[in-house]
Design goal:
The protein is mainly α and 415 residues long. It contains 15 helices and no strands. The protein has helices spanning 3-25, 30-53, 61-83, 95-109, 114-137, 150-174, 177-197, 200-203, 205-216, 223-261, 267-284, 292-304, 321-350, 356-375, 385-407. Helix 6 (150-174) runs antiparallel to helix 14. The longest helix has 39 residues, at 223-261. It starts with a helix and ends in an 8-residue tail after the last helix. Mean pLDDT is 90; it is low at 410-415.
């Protein structure tokens, strides 16, 4: 066996390791997810180059739809940069969509081991939850996971918890009681960590995520799930009750202060004024928007006109991805943003029914997309490197795993 054959045979193992490290290290080391994403993309670049050289450029209809959605998202940034005479750095974040497509080529060619990825998600959830508890109660951190903006970290924590809970139902269908217990434990740790993290935008994704998981597993809801829910509520309440109460009281006070006293120098008050500024800007330039740099000037202009509070003058984005993209790139910005959400959501849904693994990866993909859509209501999640990498590469990973499982159905499965 020659060296190239050995490399090719071991490639699925290494892609599994890269994906596992991507999830495991994401919250703990800022440089890790960027470095791992680049490695996965470079491998894909070589594969795409070989396919082009061999004139093998065929894409399935589904793959083509995802490629078009991600590429159009990037191209609109390029056009906006040209039209509004922006800076080249504006292409940094949307380029993650293209890098994720290259990584997708890697995952489709060198098929990662699904069981390894499942374990990596469970370990990532458990480690992240335990770390959050340690940082909050022992290290007394005000904001957890200092390698990230805490709002972004909260979003990842919530998703890890939902992933583990979805894995519980998968293991239940397989009759693997030990793994059912592990998945419940890691889900509980991650959700407690998410509440301790205090990101209310992430909390908002919990009801939607639970509804999705329970809908897809409505025929398999067992007593174990209700026991887990009860225990998690009791333990979680003991650990996080005061934190949750404090954050809700703060939210209530922010709303009252904004409505009754027009006070905008609070967390929610500033958001309300940023949303107001974005909506005014959209009305002023609905077709092509203001451009990424122009949005900042627009906000300062609205401050000078007395339309919004000076408290928001220094913010880089609108803390709402939909309003941010529409104000920066007009109606086309909104359409391409919806494209990178709805196209993969549709693809995950369409491929659910083939076997247990396609259902699992499809469900995780749906949770990935729908949760980020919720986060984007109160945060410009994709306007941060961590959010862009986590979203685009997460979609690529789960889509590839679902496609691979579809093309390689399980011989034996319990449903």
């Amino acid at each position: 066996m020659n060296v190239m054959t050995k490399i090719k045979d071991s490639a699925p193992l290494w892609t599994s390791v890269l994906i596992g490290l991507f999830f495991l290290l994401f919250l703990h080391f800022k440089a890790s997810y960027t470095a791992l994403a680049v490695v996965m993309s470079l491998i894909g670049l070589v594969l795409v180059g070989i396919q082009i050289k061999q004139k093998n450029r065929q894409l399935s209809g589904e793959n083509k739809a995802l490629v078009i959605a991600f590429v159009c998202y990037f191209i609109l940034f390029v056009l906006s940069l040209i039209i509004h005479k922006g800076k080249g750095s504006e292409l940094d974040l949307p380029s993650r969509a293209l890098l994720a497509l290259l990584a997708l080529a890697t995952f489709l060619h060198f098929k990662p081991n699904g069981k390894w990825v499942m374990w990596s998600l469970l370990i990532a959830s458990g480690v992240a939850g335990f770390t959050a508890i340690y940082q909050f109660f022992v290290l007394k951190y005000r904001f957890l996971f200092p390698a990230h903006m805490y709002i972004q970290a909260g979003g990842a924590l919530m998703l890890f918890s939902l992933f583990s809970l979805a894995l519980f139902f998968y293991f239940q269908a397989q009759g693997k009681k030990a793994l059912m217990l592990v998945s419940l434990l890691t889900s509980g740790l991650a959700i407690i960590g998410c509440f301790l993290n205090q990101s209310r935008g992430a909390w908002a994704a919990l009801p939607a995520g639970l509804v999705i998981i329970l809908f897809f597993n409505r025929k398999n809801i067992s007593k174990w799930f209700w026991i887990f829910l009860l225990i998690t509520t009791l333990i979680g309440g003991a650990f996080t009750g005061k934190v949750i109460e404090k954050r809700f009281v703060q939210a209530k006070n922010d709303v009252v202060a904004y409505v009754e006293r027009n006070k905008s120098n609070t967390s929610l008050g500033a958001r309300f004024d940023m949303w107001k500024s974005a909506l005014i800007g959209i009305q002023e330039k609905p077709l092509l928007g203001w451009g990424l740099q122009g949005v900042k000037a627009m906000r300062k202009q609205h401050v000078a006109q007395g339309l919004v509070s000076p408290a928001i003058a220094g913010f880089d984005h609108a803390h709402n991805q939909y309003l941010q993209d529409t104000s920066a790139r007009g109606i086309f910005g909104l359409l391409t943003l919806l494209g990178i959400f709805l196209v993969p959501l549709n693809l995950f849904w369409r491929n659910l029914a083939h076997n247990a693994e396609t259902r699992l990866w499809g469900l995780l993909g749906i949770l990935q997309v729908s949760s980020v859509m919720v986060y984007s209501l109160s945060q410009s999640f994709l306007s941060h490197n961590s959010g862009a990498v986590f979203y685009f590469f997460g979609v690529a990973i789960f889509y590839a795993l679902q496609k691979n499982a579809k093309n390689r159905p399980l011989v034996k499965e319990q449903t």
